[in-house]
Structure formats: structure tokens, C-alpha cells
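Hello again, I could really use a second opinion on something today. I've been puzzling over a protein and I'd love to understand its fold better. I'm sending you its amino acid sequence along with the C-alpha cells. It would help a lot if you went through both lines with me. I've dropped the whole record in just underneath, so have a look.
***
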Amino acid sequence: MTSQTSAPAISARGLTKRYGSTNALDDVSFDLPANTVCGLFGRNGAGKTTLMSILTAQNFATSGEPRIFGEDPYENTHVLPRICFVRESQRYPEDSTPAQAFQMARLFFPNWDQELADRLVEEFRLPDCRRIKKLSRGQLSAVGVIIGLASRADVTFFDEPYLGLDAVARQLFYDRLLEDYSDFPRTILLSSHLIDEVSNLVEQVLVVDEGRLVLNESADDLRGMAFTVVGAESAVDAFIGDREELHRDRLGSVASVTVLGRLEDTDLAELSARGIATAPVSMQELIVRLTTRADRRERTSRPMGASR
């Protein structure tokens, strides 16, 4: 699905954002090729929104360079119409209507598809002539995702605007995103706490933790980065050996251990001989384990009672 171009659709070079003594972003660098759906994951306050706002020229980096198709997006009249940024906290004039918001979007985005917007209004059951101030949170979320999809911008950023949608409406959003992306490929960067819900959408995964980029992997590679083994604890420990352990649960003499690394064909015979079962690790579980690994190491490296 991914198509390479001469310049990455999105680039970050050493992006750092400081607020006083706090680093909201800390030396973040990556390239994202054109025509890719990328998931941006991390805990609350990890730096996801800050990163997106800098890449879309709505915030300034303390240092480093954001690039969209190789150009600085700030006050760039060539680049900005190619970017659509929809966020969970999106604000519209309270006395306007969704229909008016779509009219404004149509003027700004050169690839705007009004037919798609009209269809999505019906599918999301959005009262597009009702005043914005009278819309529910879910209806406001629908306004944002409709703009993001119908803009067909070359680079589209979704900063969790779909959180207000119920499960049925979120699935509709995922389905329409995949359908339209297949017909009109572009670069989509979406952040979400609902990692398992969007895991089948994304081709690339970025994980930010405490302002640092801690993971930049293809989704296919990420799915094979860890596995879980379940069996008698003594047998499990013997199999694990010096492999890195991400998480362990115990129930009596039985242990369930998530292990970082790839399960090779040569391991299967040993697992069978030891009576150990295996299970895949979901993308959400793996990302949670990876982002808490550094915290565990920091805690265990400090003397008891030491302050941070």
C-alpha cells in the first residue's frame, strides 16, 4: 500500500519543545513516507498533540525542524492547504452549523469532496443545520471526522477527534477511512488510546513516551516483536533463559510471561516438549509493556525511598 516519493510526506529532525524546565518533546526524529496510515500512540501527556501541532504549524518547536514534503509548513501557502488537522478539542463558532463548517472547509481544501461529505452526514446521522452549540459531543466528533475524510488532504492528522463517537460510529469511521484511503491514498497520522481498535488500520507505528520517540516500526514487524508463553513456571523459566521479560503473571505454579523477541520455528519443538503453550501479544498490550518497561527499570535502579 505504501508508496515512496522523493521526499517523505512527514519528517521530524530533532524536534524539541520545552515549557520552562519540562520537555514536552525531546529530540524527536522520524520520516513517514507518502501514502501511509500511521498510528501515533502514547499515554496522556506523552507529547502526541504537541508533536502534531508543531508538524501542522500550529505550534513552534524550541529546536529542530518539522517538514511536510520537505518544506517548513509555517506560513507556507504551498504546504498548508495540503494539510488537514482535526483534533478532539476542535472548536467551531457556536452559532454556526456543521453545514457552514463544511462550506468553509470546501474553500480551504483543494481536494474537498462534497459528495463524500454529504454521504457521511447521512451515515453519521448528523443534523447539519443545527447550531454547533446544540450538538452533542458525539455529533461534534462527527463534524471533525467528516472534515478530515472529505478534505482528502495529502496529509491528514487525526488527534483523537473520534473519542466522542460511540462504538458503532467509531467503526463507521474506521470503515470509511479504509475505503477512502484505498481509493484515494494519502498520508494519515492518527493518534488514539484505542490501540487495538485501530491496529488493523495502521501500517506504521510511532510511540511517544515522556516526549521521546521510543518506537518507530512497521505494524507488521511490531506484531512479531513479542509473544506470551504459559506453563509450569519452572519450564517457562528454563525456556526463557536470557530473553528479555516484559511482563509476568502467576497463578499457583503456572506462569504466563510476555517475552520480547521473535518466536522462531526452532522454538516450537522445545515449547512442545516442555508442555508450554504460546499466545500472540496484541498491539495494545505490547505498546503498554514497552512504554512501562523504562519506568520499571528506573524504579528498580533507585534505592528504596529515593525520590525522583
